[in-house]
Task: structure prediction
Amino acid sequence: MTESTRPPAPSFSKAVLAIVRKDLSAELRSRELLSAMLVFALLVILIFNFALELDVKVRETVTAGVLWTTFAFAGTLGLNRSMSVEKDRGCLDGLLLAPVDRSAIYFGKALSNLIFMLIVEAFTLPVYSLLYNVNLFQPGLLLVVLLGSIGYIAVGTLLATMAVQTRTRDVMLPILLFPIVLPVLLASVKASAGFLNGLDFAEISGALNLLIAYDLIFIAVPLMLFEYVVEE
Amino acid sequence: MLLQATPDTTGYMIAGYALTFIAMGIYIFSLSIRAANLKRDLETLEMLEAEERAKQK
Amino acid sequence: MPSKPLTLKFLDLASILAMVISTYLALVFAPQEVVMGNAQRIFYFHIGTAWVAMLGFILAALGGIIYLITKDLKWDRFELAAVEVSALFFLITICLGAIWARPVWNTWWTWDVRLTTAAVTELVFIAYLMLRQGLEDPEKRARFGAVYTLLGGLSVPVTFMVIRLFRTIHPVVVGSPSAEAQGGFNMDDRMVATFLFALVAFTIVFIDLFWHRVRLGALEEKVEQQKLKASL
Result:
């Protein structure tokens, strides 16, 4: 964070970028977060393969569900790790002391979490395509993946910040996150399945609109609420 | 379904009403237990405080 | 703790009386519904509890907002009481719905809009209570709780809309042409009177329980303060 030492206080975007750069370079060195998420995602897909007997017929109906369950589980793993590292190494306190807006910290953390999630998805999608011979590279589906991940991470970053401060930190995040993020997962599954099964856009647009509405609400609200979950 | 005689579903009705009253009863009971426990704690704590004060004098 | 106010004593009596009258009206006064038989009488309590559960849900979110603005722990107690009592009534509503659905829809549970949303709300409440358990500091607990109720208050309506994209079989009891086929029915005057009285009765019971829970919260806070004083 060389920029932030220079007075006066750095601009919002500079602060956000500094946090993202810090997270990415730390991850580039250790690779512990991404590797855990990726291996976990693969394992989930493997388990689904045997649990659901993913033959050709079943695949058509459950692919969207399997993908989003995988993303959701891998996502909690990443969020938990990303926020507890901040907490354990006292980085969060350090960040809070820096003369930047609280919302910039939220935005920076959310952005780097989103990048991690997208990397995992960028890896999982081709692997799934390859293993099951389904073409997942459709622009519509990729849009849904992006929108769904944004909503998931926007809420997840806020709730993970809360979860790592509780006594039962490791188990708290999924319990807090899943009931709140349920609409994102449901709408994403519905929209993804729509694109995969080649439905008319009119049939998918309802889910897409809800997804966009959720994203907007749940970027704006955590942005306002974040200061309440970090102040001491 | 429309042309049949009214089915006897009294059992379900009784189950429903019993459940409502039992659930509310349990909740009220838990409120009173919690209140009693807290009152006891408070009394103990106040007693300890009084003893502490007496010692200091 | 100050002794019980006279209004609360009066409210206790009123709740008992209202429940007795409401039960009498529902079980004896209201005529038997022809298609569903006596199980239809569950409907009066089902709607009564559902209404106050919704009320509690809204009050909890309001309490959260006011707490974040005022930082007065009084509003935290308000919010906690609303969540707890609302969780109780949601639970009763869900169980009553299942008991009613068994003879009428021939299934205990369906993944219908209102049923699922009620269940998700219940999960949000359970997560809220678990979150509070994991936090020691009363001020932090209040802040996190308020943030979480706010997120829940925003997300549950979206969940409702998302699930509505899927098909529903929950009856719209009043004024829907297809309602009758799905378990809706025409209400005669005595049924309407019973229905309205049940709403009033459960509102009284809700206020009574809510008040008691707020007082219990005040007592909890007092004990916590005493403990803090003793540990110094």
About this structure: The CA atoms of residues 140 and 172 of chain A lie 33 Å apart. Chain A has a mean pLDDT of 86.
